[in-house]
Design brief:
Elements lengths: L1 H36 L5 H23 L6 H25 L5 H8 L2 H12 L6 H21 L7 H24 L5 H15 L4 H9 L3 H26 L4 H7 L3 H13 L5 H17 L1 H5 L12 H16 L2
Length: 328
């Protein structure tokens, strides 16, 4: 029984790792797509259409999944992070990327993991493990290099920087609320309800969205559909799945590699050529994330073996614990 419990834990860790990678790739691509679509549509119209698509997709999944809706405090937490993240962060980031290139926007937004790690270390008892602190320092050094390499880019202005920093604060606050909500709400239901909350908050932009979409090119419409399905419906669900199975600070540290991925994607898709400092900073971001995750890889082998008469009881308890964590 104990062996089976360990196998389930390892399987759950691997699934969570796949979820994290999926989230990072989709969120990095969002910075690039927002930059592209933002040349045609206003920030409010973009966030409304993106959330409308996301809510429809997530609603279909939630209907098939058939989990109970959150109530009471859990519902308030989900609604809160939905408005902050899906609507507030989405609108602010869309606006920021009308003043910043995709890589610079990703770099500024990713001070959020630092905020999450500090608050989670104190409020949630996650602590400050050495690999996480060291990894975040290395990755933040990479972020600084990317910032230095972006200083000479055309179109970077103070309004864009302030908007991106505001987006980072909204992102960090939403993650912390979400971490608490996921203690009692499954990932799919939480993401769907949060997306609907964000959609409701963005309703004032519905009329603007209809008017702008009528004259928008097909590429912009397809870009919005992609943002709704990929970076919204899929990525937020895989993020919630991983967050429910990880320390908030440790998981947030992985997103420090987003600027590096976004810089490469914007280089390929938008011809926003990164500087030498930007490439070096991207490499440091990836290295920092690798350092911050070292302890997580060692966790499965750290479980002490159970011997003798206590084995059946320990095995049952362990399996119950893993089973509880494996429920999405």
């Amino acid at each position: 029984m104990h062996c089976r419990c360990q196998c389930q834990a390892v399987s759950s860790n691997r699934t969570a790792a796949v979820a994290v990678v999926t989230t990072l790739l989709l969120w990095a691509s969002a910075f690039v797509e927002i930059r592209s679509v933002g040349a045609v549509l206003a920030p409010g119209a973009m966030v409304f259409v993106r959330l409308l698509v996301g809510a429809i997709v997530l609603g279909l999944v939630a209907l098939r999944y058939r989990r109970p809706l959150p109530r009471g405090r859990a519902l308030r937490l989900v609604l809160g992070y939905g408005v902050l993240w899906f609507a507030g962060y989405g609108f602010t980031l869309n606006w920021a990327e009308q003043h910043l290139d995709a890589g610079t926007a990703a770099m500024l937004v990713n001070i959020a993991p630092i905020l999450v790690a500090v608050v989670a270390g104190v409020a949630f008892g996650d602590g400050f493990p050495r690999p996480v602190v060291a990894g975040m320092l290395v990755a933040f050094g990479g972020v600084v290099l990317i910032a230095a390499g972006s200083d000479s880019h055309a179109g970077v202005d103070s309004l864009g920087v302030l908007l991106a920093l505001l987006a980072a604060v909204l992102y960090a606050a939403a993650v912390l609320l979400q971490k608490v909500a996921l203690r009692t709400v499954d990932a799919v239901t939480a993401t769907w309800v949060a997306c609907v909350a964000g959609l409701a908050a963005s309703m004032p932009f519905a009329g603007q969205a209809v008017g702008e979409l009528s004259g928008a090119p097909a590429s912009a419409v397809l870009g919005l559909v992609y943002l709704g399905v990929g970076p919204s419906a899929i990525a937020f669900t895989t993020w919630a799945y991983a967050l429910a199975r990880s320390d908030a600070g440790r998981l947030a540290a992985t997103t420090l590699c987003l600027p590096a991925i976004a810089v490469l994607m914007s280089w390929a898709a938008l011809d926003e050529v990164p500087t030498a400092l930007g490439l070096a900073g991207g490499a440091l971001c990836v290295a920092g994330v690798a350092i911050s995750r070292r302890r997580s890889r060692a966790l499965p082998t750290a479980t002490p073996p159970v011997h003798g008469p206590a084995a059946p009881s320990g095995g049952v308890q362990g399996c119950d614990s893993c089973s509880a964590r494996a429920v999405p």
